[in-house]
């Protein structure tokens, strides 16, 4: 196992996970994939995740529930939620709760990469003013 920072992808659709993994690794990022929120929460990647990309609709815990669970346990990380079923109520709630971006499937790769770069910039700003909590 390495201590290298990772972008974690949580999506129950294998083709979406693999597509995002291929995109991110081709851009030089280290990424890991998970099919369920609980799988991610029980992984050794949890403490190394610097950006989380999650589907909104997941079996068990939803993407927004995952984000809120992480926040309640002191693991605040830039999060991008992606959904095939967008609605204004969920989008507004997610952004109000602190989710960095809320994208619609199929997502545009350039838009996703821009959101990831913005998430990294946010993380650098946050770490500049505070100590990271693990």
- Give unreliable regions as ranges: 130-134
- What class do helices, strands and sheet pairing give? alpha/beta
Helix content: 40-55%
Main sheet strand line-up = 2-1-3-4-5
CATH topology: Rossmann fold
Output the CATH homologous superfamily.
Response regulator
Mean pLDDT over all positions:
89
Distance between the termini: 18 Å
Q: Main β-sheet, in a few words?
A: 5 strands, parallel
Number of self-contained structural domains: 1
- Number of extended strands: 5
CATH class, named: Alpha Beta
- How many helices does DSSP assign? 5
Strand content of the residues, in percent?
Answer: 15-25%
Molecular structure report:
The chain has 134 residues and is of the alpha/beta class. The protein has a single domain, classed as Response regulator (Rossmann fold). It contains five helices and five strands; from the N terminus they run βαβαβαβαβα. It has a five-stranded parallel beta sheet with strand order 2-1-3-4-5, with helices on both faces. The longest helix is centred in the last third of the chain and has 21 residues. The C terminus is likely disordered.
In brief:
Helices cover 44% and strands 19% of the residues. The protein has 134 residues and is of the alpha/beta class.
Question: Which properties best describe this structure?
Answer:
5-stranded parallel β-sheet, 134 residues, single chain, alpha/beta, disordered C terminus, Rossmann fold
Topology:
Elements lengths: L5 E5 L3 H13 L4 E4 L2 H5 L7 E7 L7 H10 L6 E5 L4 H10 L3 E4 L4 H21 L5
Parallel strand pairs: 1-2, 1-3, 3-4, 4-5
